[in-house]
Amino acid sequence: MLGVGLTLGLGISVSVVGAAIDARTGHVPNWLTLGALSVAPPVAFALQASAHGVRAGLVAAGMSLLGAFVCGLGPLVAFLKGGMGGGDVKLLAAIGALLGFRLGLDAEFYGFVIGALYVPAKLAWDGRLLATVKGGLRALLNPLRNKQARAEVPEGLRMRVRLGPAICAGTLAAVVLAWMGA
């Protein structure tokens, strides 16, 4: 049980530090994400090997690597398409490595939902929600128009969002819900 508590604590700590730095600077630092990614498999190995033997340690280290891969793959595709920052990708992969792919995917999903709710709330707060929705609907018709008549994509739909705080909130939600047995 100590191992589970330690890895959950590390996952939460990485997400909290990443959120704080991202909110302040707009970047998630490599020392945090790559540090967590490099520490997670050996910690998983050590915790399981000491309690259940080397074979269990190797399985735990492999599951940590699998968590990093599974939780980082979708965000990596989004990054390659220009829809997400590289620090967010590495942060999600690190959380997957620390929490495992199941809890890591829950954290990722909740973080994306929270981030998706933030954008319309921010646009509404700024008084730009209706204009953005109307402009977005006009832009949806662009494939049916000739090049000269195409509508500009509204600024609100090109807004950059710092996902670190949303990823942190998603991680906390995933851990709490898992702890409650939901």
Describe this structure in words.
The structure is a single chain. This protein is 78% helix and 0% strand. It has one domain. The protein is an all-alpha fold. α1 runs antiparallel to α2, α2 runs antiparallel to α3 and α4 runs antiparallel to α5. It starts with a helix and ends with a helix. The protein is elongated. 34% of the residues are buried.
What is the secondary structure topology, with strand pairs?
Blueprint: H1 2-25, H2 30-52, H3 54-80, H4 86-99, H5 101-125, H6 129-140, H7 164-180
Helix pairs in contact: 1-2, 1-4, 1-7, 2-3, 2-4, 3-4, 3-5, 4-5, 5-7
Strand composition percent = under 5%
Average of the residue pLDDT scores: 89
Counting DSSP E segments of at least 2 residues, the number of strands comes to 0
The number of helical segments is: 7
* SSE class: mainly alpha
Most strands sheet: none
Contiguous runs where pLDDT drops below 50 for at least 5 residues = none
Distance between the termini: 19 Å
Radius of gyration: 19 Å
Please state the overall shape, judged from the principal axes of the Cα atoms.
elongated
Helix content: over 70%
Number of domains: 1
* Order of H and E elements: HHHHHHH
